[in-house]
Specification:
This protein has about 425 residues and is an alpha+beta fold. The protein has 14 helices and 21 strands. Helices cover about 35% and strands about 25% of the residues. The strands form six sheets. Strands 12-15-14-13-16-17 form a six-stranded antiparallel β-barrel. Strands 6-2-1-10-21 form a five-stranded parallel beta sheet, with helices on both faces. Helix 2 runs antiparallel to helix 6 and helix 4 crosses helix 14. The structure holds flavin-adenine dinucleotide (FAD).
Length: about 425
């Protein structure tokens, strides 16, 4: 059996490493650039957030705005526990951080790259770097390729497309009969109208542990809860990144113009927040309102929120009228800010859109349109929120495809 893998990224290498352990199968790995595994190298700020310590397939799948339903069965067969065991068997230990993200204990993406390259080399995979694939076609059930240095490469009994979000990879899938759902960036930060945010420049670096962030587009309102980080340009942190993934398509359609709402007390009603303010008024009656924040709002942010509610910073708590407290409580439950653009999140980036999931059999990762064509990783219309979920998709789908081909080979040769 001769298998061609197109794309030397996370999915292509994991697939090759897994399949090359089976004798009798010849794997050739075509990578367009001279440096395979580039995204693994830069991932997680150079530390590579390999996976997430979430071991229930159903719960895990909810971290994927696209692919949620299809990945449930995939994770039932290969999930983060299997990833941990797989890398441990190859000599790489992973460790979880308090937020669930898992990194190699060396804290270096170089460890993952060395592990994958070593396995692939030991498994006898033919690695063809700087060898982009431009065309794939079938003749009598066998695949042929046109690559940078060859007009006719093959024949191969199976092809795995693991080209990530590259448009060239999507064109190859289209040429074999597949449809591509529209692409859109995912995992981005929110830029707030500069004319408003410049007054808040002192807030950069302030974080709040639990905020409900919502965004309203003409089609739909989205919201996500979690830690919020304020930056020089606007909003970031897990709640915003999660929200950007779930609203990726709708926000692209509005050119990233929408209304953002921040609820700083998601566990309390507006009346309860008003009650907290009244208690602060009694306890800190002699203090300036700006110096009496309600936990857990940091003082710097408290001052900004007070001004946004129209209350002068030097006003004494004892002088606050009920109407002022009411408008302050309303603002703490819904601070509305105009979104005017998207920023980049340097630690992780992913594209939503790709090969239409209806056209894939997720039991094997095989195309329903072109037999013996397989897909793995980000080339599919699958993407996850930040936290190691995108690599987990690459490992799981690559493993399923490799296992299917291994079993096929055994069946045909016994
Ligand atoms: C800055 C950054 C940080 C990230 N950090 C994390 C993280 O910490 N954790 C996480 O889970 N996810 C992270 N991600 C997302 C993750 O990197 C991707 O989801 C993952 O790499 C997808 O793997 P893949 O193999 O499908 O695609 P890729 O890793 O993109 O690999 C595709 C490969 O195919 C090659 N290729 C494309 N077209 C052709 C062709 N025609 N012929 C030959 N070769 C071709 C490309 O050159 C590339 O090497 C990060 C992404 C970025 C950009």
């Amino acid at each position: 059996m001769k298998v061609a893998v197109i794309g030397g990224g996370a999915a292509g290498y994991f697939f090759s490493a897994q399949l090359s352990q089976s004798p009798g199968i010849e794997v050739t790995l075509f990578e367009g650039t001279s440096r395979p595994l580039t995204k693994v190298r830069i991932s997680g700020g150079g530390r590579c957030n390999v996976t997430h310590n979430l071991f229930d397939p159903q719960a895990l799948s909810t971290s994927y705005p696209r692919g949620q339903r299809e990945l449930r069965s995939v994770f039932a067969r290969f999930q983060p526990q299997d990833t941990i065991a797989w890398f441990a068997k190859a000599g790489v230990q992973l460790r979880a951080e308090p937020d669930g993200r898992m990194f190699p204990t060396t804290n270096s993406s170089g460890t993952i790259i060395a592990c994958l390259k070593d396995l692939v080399t030991k498994g006898g995979v033919v690695q063809r770097n700087s060898e982009a694939c431009f065309a794939i076609w079938k003749e009598q059930d066998l695949f042929w390729l046109r690559t940078r240095h060859s007009d006719r490469e093959g024949p191969f009994s199976a092809v795995v497309l693991a080209t990530g979000s590259s448009p060239q990879g999507h064109r190859l899938a289209e040429s074999l009969g597949h449809s591509i759902t529209p692409l859109a960036p995912s995992l981005f930060t929110f830029e707030i109208a500069p004319h408003l945010w410049k007054h808040q420049s002192g807030l950069a670096g302030v974080s709040v542990p639990d905020v409900n962030v919502s965004v309203s587009t003409p089609q739909k309102k989205f919201s996500r809860r979690g830690p919020l980080l304020l930056t020089h340009w606007g909003l970031s942190g897990p709640a915003v990144l999660k929200l950007s993934a779930f609203a990726a398509r709708e926000l692209q359609a509005t050119h990233y113009k929408a209304l953002v709402g921040l609820d700083f007390f998601p566990e309390r009603s507006t009346e309860e927040v008003l009650h907290s303010l009244q208690q602060q008024k009694q306890t800190f009656s002699r203090q300036n309102a700006a110096n009496a924040p309600v936990e857990p709002i940091p003082k710097r942010l408290w001052r900004s929120l007070q001004m946004a509610a129209g209350i002068p910073p030097e006003k004494k708590m004892s002088d606050l009228k009920r109407t002022e407290l009411e408008s302050w409580a309303a603002l703490l439950k819904n601070w509305e800010l105009p979104l005017t653009g998207k920023g980049t999140f340097k630690e992780e980036f992913v594209t939503c859109g790709g090969v239409d999931l209806k056209e894939i059999d997720f039991r094997s990762m095989q195309s329903k349109i072109c037999s013996n064509l397989f897909f793995a990783g980000e080339v599919l219309d699958v993407d996850g929120i930040t936290g190691g979920f995108n690599f987990q998709n690459a490992w799981s789908t690559a493993w399923i495809a490799a296992e299917h081909l291994r079993k096929e080979f055994l069946r045909n040769n016994n």
